Amino acid sequence: MPVLMSKSIKLWAAGLVCLAFPVHADPLPMPSGPVVLTITGNLGVTNSDGSAIFDVEMLRSLGETDIVTDTNWTSGIHTFTGARLLDILARVEADGTTVNATAINDYSVEIPVSDASETSPIIAYALDGKPMPRREKGPLWVIYPYASSSKFQTEVIYSRSIWQLDRMSIK
Predict the structure, then answer these.
(1) Residue 26: what pLDDT?
(2) How far apart are CA 41 and CA 171, in angstroms?
(3) Where is the Oxidoreductase molybdopterin-binding domain (predicted)?
(4) Is the predicted pLDDT of residue 134 greater than 70, yes or no?
(5) CA–CA separation, 119 vs 50, rounded Å?
(6) How far is residue 119's CA from residue 152's CA, in Å, rounded to a whole number?
(7) 31-51, pLDDT tens digit by residue?
(8) Cα separation of 27 and 10, whole Å?
(9) 38 burial via Cβ count (<10 Å: 0-12, 13-18, 19+)
(10) Are 138 and 131 in contact (CB under 8 A)?
(11) What CATH class is the domain 28-170?
(12) Nearest 5 degrees, angle CA 93-CA 36-CA 145?
């Protein structure tokens, strides 16, 4: 026996289906500059053989966020500029609970996806308005707002603050 539904119930049900199975975001363009970040793993949006590759301009296009803070590795207060981890994960439709972040020298840390919020961390690509060269912990550095709260001044958070970041894998 067929089930009859009103138009409003059909629209409501269609909305639930869209929430359960989100439509993929716009295709991720190819970088026009040097690749600084490669993301692999459980991704819904890619642009290169199952991975998502970014240049600095692509990261900038996600929205720039500044964190003004001191760090254990620099002297004084500095302004770090970058893209929020939250926005990067959303752009590639990451589906996982852990970000395995790896540096150029293969040093690796795990960052829980739950760390990604409106305020932190950012994947910084500029320090005091200038690109960060490799000799100065660049080109990318995971930065939390350390000075804003004691919750960011722990060994766990410091250990997640990987510099010379060039790869992330979503698990």
Answers:
(1) 81
(2) 6
(3) 68-146
(4) yes
(5) 29
(6) 12
(7) 999 999 999 999 999 999 999
(8) 29
(9) middle
(10) yes
(11) alpha beta
(12) 70
